[in-house]
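Good morning N.,

You mentioned wanting to compare the apo and holo forms, so I went ahead and generated the holo version with orotidine-5'-monophosphate. This is what I fed in:
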Amino acid sequence: MATDSPLIIALDYPSLDAALCMADQLDPARCRVKVGKELFTRSGPAVLEALHGRGFEVFLDLKFHDIPNTVASAVQAAAEQGVWMVNVHACGGRRMMEAAAKRLSDNKLSTHLIAVTVLTSMQADDLTETGVEVSPAEQVMRLALLTQQSGLNGVVCSAQEAAQIKAQCGGEFLKVTPGIRPSFAEANDQQRIMTPTDALQAGSTHLVIGRPVTKAADPMVALAAIEAELAAF
Ligand SMILES: O=C(O)c1cc(=O)[nH]c(=O)n1[C@@H]1O[C@H](COP(=O)(O)O)[C@@H](O)[C@H]1O
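and this is what came out, ligand included:
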């Protein structure tokens, strides 16, 4: 089922049962869901079948980063399982991203392909330790432009960088932003955060939200509070 909601709920659970227990409380008309490394490593493609069977559009977040042929083949495998979106790491470089995008278009696969720029858990000193001497905002912009030139549909970035990416890459280029923290939620391990409304105002096209909903005392109350905030936007 297609939805025009910007919300993507991260199903970061250690088992298929736990993930489906959450999914069964969600409405595919009101959000998409994200399957990440922990859940996919434990449950495999069965989780994709189960979520598709419930009508959800799925973002398969495995952040591929490898040589071009390996990443292109992994992206093709994901798309052939019908996922709505899949991602790679932009720091894998132009040839890796171009190979992945070409593999999708050669096979007429319409899955959205996006690239992670700088993880929302990172700050300037984390980048410095990896040899990147520019600020997170500069590095995100550099990788966003590279991603666009490589033919991908958008990036994962923090909402703090969404406005600049919108200005340079345009409104159609997807800005998928994790690190979303409603005022009632803790930051946890996220560093570059923003509230849902501020994120949309800044130009985010999709908001990835995990623990503020999934670890809330009542996940549905937390989700309703976020939806109410966005409805007023
Ligand atoms: O690619 C992602 O989805 C991602 C990229 C990034 O830079 N930061 C980030 O937090 N994520 C994912 O977004 C989700 C955020 O979850 P919460 O911090 O619980 O809201 C997690 O599943 C992360 O793996």
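The longest strand covers residues 58-64.

Happy to go through it together on a call whenever suits you.

Best,
F.
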